[in-house]
Specification:
With 726 residues, the protein is mostly beta strands. The protein has a 24-stranded antiparallel β-barrel. Strands 1, 2, 3, 4, 5, 6, 7, 8, 9, 10, 11, 12, 13 and 14 form a 14-stranded mixed sheet that branches. InterPro entries: Carb-bd_dom_fam9 (IPR010502), DUF5916 (IPR045670). It holds the Pfam family DUF5916. This is Carbohydrate binding family 9 domain-containing protein.
Length: 726
């Protein structure tokens, strides 16, 4: 009866007439606020009150929502953990206090705002009901205020979140809400609304209701103007061309058409990234997926990017403005003069996404101008499920006579429907989808279809996946790893929760994945025996024994050195050990190690990858990522020793000034990349970047030292962005 009464507690947004000073000091105004107390443990257990209790309070005025967190600790002289003073921290070992707002009460999408004891802030979006780690993104940015202050035995978090930062309907009398806390000293994670430990900490099925003392109202014009200027200078020494200098300027506009529907406009966007993608050793036969991180595409990104599954996406925004010249195999990037997005809630049950990007022609490459457009509709059904439909169109209106035959394609279209399933209690989740791709050359088998189902309770989970991708399914604005396949996969896990000792949970599992087609039969399959161990310290270990089969329908060099390829129409069955260990990240020195070693095609591979990090908080950390692959194949095929080493130095001199240097040596491409970035956040979500990038020819000598050759390319970039709320 006690626990049931605790679950029933809700909270009320009360109005305050005087704006609250955000300084980490509990003012008298908070005495009138309603409180969220009696927090429950989520980790290591989920059946008792939290050991280190917390209290959250909420207030509002015409402009802001105010949130207060009081986070208590049994140890009054403790030290808190932060990776650095950089915004958008993440990790199960970092102290933080976070609030989640489900403003439309659909338990599908939400906003999150968090802060740690050093006053470092983060904001993010939750999609797909918070099912899985990938449903939580910290790439979204917006303007809000937050401060924290440490006291003996507790710390205080204070936030002021502008109402025009959020999307909601006018006249609402309640939202859904939750608060959660990560406490580094005890490795305890706790929530106000209880969440079963087999779900994510940001799961939206478990939210409680927050009532409003007055119905919600729109706050101001909800208009943001975000201009930028950039200048760059670079040179390609391999082609021995003259130095290239450039200047660019443009802007974005964000406008709230309604409190739930947002318009994003961009003029001459700068879609270059000020930090390079992390390099990988590519021993895969298929393309590697790098996620979208550009701000213009992030709000309501799930409306556009979550169709299909991770390996079969009909729309991938990083394809916009990029064309592939099939005659050379090279990608060509074209300028984007302007673009627009409308996204958000049209009413309580309907979400709408409309995108149009105009790409300029490239006369030098003989590439025409293209328009990239997408329409997406998502209708809520039942408690938390939805039916989504989309249409993607890439089209040029220019004459084919003026452009290269290998690059000219008048139009390419993809359309389809997804049913996203989520039960009210989140135990059952899944997806069904069917997509088709068409262009001016009518072909058969240009479809993708799939089904995913997951059932999860604390003691066990079962996931089943199946898909079919036609041989001619090739959306030009999508990401498709493999075509002409039929795939069936299943994963079962059993969990045991010891009542004593240092282990939080452990258990075995079984997994298989089969891929084939009508022409060759089986292309790939693997069968795995699994075992996972999670410690209360937040350390974890996973292990699997795998037997796998591969049929090469094309020639492939598994050494990764462009050597003699294994012949097509050959097959291989291998036994492999796969393991990963992640240490306790609360320690100043932490690490993770993984291996995928054993038989490898017609030879053997010894693999070791990992990262070691030393944290000198709060000023930052130094880490080194590494990957080693020792591949031995019988003659006449190449042996190889592939190294990837990436030291990173991350200094945060304050919450406004950051310096990051990232060095990557990749023996697979004989390259050393240096990326050094100085960032000054001179105003909220407004930055000045100075970025230096250099690429050198390099190789490892017999003594194990890296010898630098001449520079291949070098560039320096200056960029300034300013976020102005009008």
């Amino acid at each position: 009866m006690l626990i049931s009464s605790l679950y029933a507690q809700d909270i009320l947004f009360k109005r305050v007439d005087t704006p609250i000073e955000i300084d980490g000091v509990i003012d008298d105004a908070w005495s009138m606020a309603d409180s969220a107390y009696n927090w429950m443990q989520y980790f290591p257990f989920d059946s008792s009150l939290a050991v280190n209790q917390s209290v959250a309070k909420v207030l509002f005025d015409d402009k802001n929502i105010y949130v207060l967190g009081i986070l208590y600790s049994e140890n009054v002289d403790r030290e808190y953990v932060t990776p650095s003073l950089r915004r958008d921290f993440r990790g199960a070992a970092n102290d933080n206090f976070t609030v989640i707002f489900d403003t439309f009460q659909d338990r599908t999408n939400a906003f999150t705002f968090g802060i740690n004891p050093f006053g470092v802030r983060r904001e993010g979006l939750v999609a797909n009901g918070g099912t899985g780690e990938s449903s939580f993104s910290l790439d979204w940015d917006n303007v809000w205020r937050g401060e924290a202050k440490q006291y003996k035995g507790y710390w205080v978090a204070e936030m002021a979140i502008p109402l025009n930062t959020l999307r909601f309907n006018e006249g609402q009398t309640s939202w859904n809400i939750n608060f959660y806390r990560i406490d580094s000293e005890s490795a305890e994670r706790s929530t106000w609304a209880p969440i079963s430990r087999n779900f994510t900490l940001f799961n939206l099925a478990a939210l409680k209701e927050a009532s409003w003392e007055e119905p919600t109202k729109r706050s101001g014009k909800n208009l943001s103007f975000i201009p930028y200027i950039s200048a760059n200078s670079g040179r390609n020494f391999e082609t021995n061309t003259e130095p290239n200098h450039g200047f660019n300027a443009g802007f974005d506009i964000k406008y709230g058409i309604t409190p739930g529907l947002n318009l994003d406009l961009t003029v001459n966007p700068d879609f270059s990234q000020v930090e390079v993608d992390q390099q990988v050793t590519n021993l895969d036969r298929f393309e590697i997926f790098f996620p979208e991180r550009r701000q213009f595409f992030l709000e309501n990104a799930d409306l556009f990017s979550n169709y299909g599954n991770r390996g079969t996406r009909p729309f991938f925004s990083r394809r916009i403005g990029v064309s592939r010249d099939e005659s050379t195999g090279q990608n060509i990037e074209s300028a984007i003069p302007f673009g627009a997005r409308v996204s958000g809630k049209a009413n309580d049950n309907l979400r709408v996404g409309i995108l149009s990007m105009q790409v300029a022609d490239d006369q030098a490459a003989s590439l025409p101008s293209y328009n990239y457009s997408m329409v997406s509709l998502q209708q809520k059904v039942f408690a938390r499920s939805n039916i989504s439909a989309f249409f993607v169109n890439k089209q040029t209106f220019q004459s084919p006579e003026e452009y290269s035959d290998s690059l000219y394609n008048a139009w390419d279209r993809t359309f389809g429907v997804d049913y996203n399933l989520a039960s009210a209690d989140n135990r059952i989740t899944g997806k069904f989808f069917y997509h088709r791709n068409i262009n001016q050359v009518a072909v058969d088998s240009a479809f993708a279809a799939g089904i995913e189902l997951q059932y999860s309770v604390p003691q066990w989970s079962l996931e089943m996946r199946s898909q079919a991708v036609g041989a001619n399914y090739a959306p030009e604005v999508g990401f498709v790893r493999r075509t002409d396949i039929r795939q069936l996969a299943m994963t079962y896990r059993r969990s045991f929760f010891p009542s004593q000792g240092g282990i939080q949970r452990h258990g075995p599992g079984f997994d298989f994945d089969m891929v084939g087609n009508d022409t060759y039969g089986f292309l790939d399959w693997d069968v795995n025996l699994l075992y996972d161990i999670f410690w209360k310290s937040s350390a974890r270990f996973s292990f699997r024994l795998r037997r796998q089969y591969t049929y090469l329908f094309n020639g492939f060099d598994p050494s990764g050195t462009d050597g003699l390829p294994l012949p097509a129409n050959t097959e291989y069955t291998n036994d492999v050990i796969i393991a990963r260990y992640e240490s306790d990240e609360r320690k100043k020195l932490s690490f993770n190690l993984s291996t995928r070693s054993g038989e490898y095609f017609n030879g053997t591979r010894i693999n070791l990858e990992g990262s070691v990090q030393w944290r000198y908080q709060p000023l930052g950390f130094t880490s080194i990522d590494f990957a080693f692959n020792r591949i031995r194949l019988p003659r006449p095929y190449n042996d190889s020793n592939l190294f990837l080493i990436g030291p990173r130095f991350d200094f945060t001199f304050s919450k406004k000034l950051f310096w990051t240097t990232f060095v990557q040596y990749n023996s697979q491409i004989d390259n050393v990349n240096i990326n050094s970035r100085l960032q000054w956040r001179f105003a909220p979500v407004s930055d000045i970047f100075l970025v230096y990038t250099d690429n050198y020819l390099a190789e490892m000598n017999p003594d194990g030292f890296i010898e630098f050759g001449p520079s291949k390319s070098r560039a320096i970039v200056f960029k300034m962005t300013y976020w102005l709320n009008l």
